[in-house]
């Protein structure tokens, strides 16, 4: 016989699994948008977006990634460790990233992060539609 307590545990597991799924999808969508909005000259700024869980990244990455493909692959791999309740970070420690965010590049005169933050509600709504809690 299934008890009310068993039903609650089942609901908790399912909800936690869905929250983890939504968190990963939202983070990857947000991070992907920031990465791809980052201006490209050598690809160094784009390559230096680092995804970590629990603490921000230290240091810089010594690669160039003009397409953003390698950076997105690394972000996807890192976000696989995310679970509901975790804090996931997107960090770029290049000394000139703030200038790029403030519009110093004609490729991104309105920045990357600020624009993506404005899109947050729409992203969450879309992902909420994709991930059913039924």
Range of helix content: 40-55%
Helix-strand string: HHEHEHHH
**Count of DSSP-assigned helices:** 6
What is the makeup of the main sheet? 2 strands, antiparallel
The radius of gyration is: 18 Å
Give the termini separation.
Answer: 23 Å
Shape: elongated
Number of domains: 1
Main sheet strand line-up: 1-2
Please give the structural blueprint.
Elements: H1 4-37, H2 44-47, E1 50-53, H3 69-79, E2 88-91, H4 97-101, H5 113-118, H6 120-130
Antiparallel strand pairs: 1-2
Helix pairs in contact: 1-3, 1-6
What does this protein structure show overall?
The chain is mainly α and 134 residues long. The chain has one domain. The chain contains 6 helices and 2 strands, in the order H-H-E-H-E-H-H-H. Strands 1-2 form a two-stranded antiparallel sheet. It is elongated, with a radius of gyration of 18 Å. The model has no long low-confidence stretch (mean pLDDT 93).
Keywords:
single chain; 134 residues; mainly alpha; 53% helix; 6% strand
What is the structure about, briefly put?
This protein is mainly alpha-helical and 134 residues long.
């Amino acid at each position: 016989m299934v008890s009310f307590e068993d039903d609650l545990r089942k609901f908790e597991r399912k909800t936690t699994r869905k929250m983890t799924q939504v968190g990963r999808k939202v983070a990857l969508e947000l991070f992907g948008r920031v990465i791809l909005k980052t201006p490209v000259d050598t690809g160094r700024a784009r390559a230096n977006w680092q995804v970590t869980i629990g603490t921000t990244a230290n240091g810089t990455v010594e690669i160039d990634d003009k397409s953003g493909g390698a950076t997105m692959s690394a972000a996807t791999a890192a976000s696989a460790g995310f679970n509901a309740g975790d804090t996931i970070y997107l960090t770029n420690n290049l000394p000139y990233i703030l200038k790029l965010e403030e519009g110093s590049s004609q490729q991104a005169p309105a920045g990357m992060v600020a624009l993506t933050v404005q899109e947050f509600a729409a992203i969450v709504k879309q992902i909420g539609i994709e991930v059913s809690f039924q």
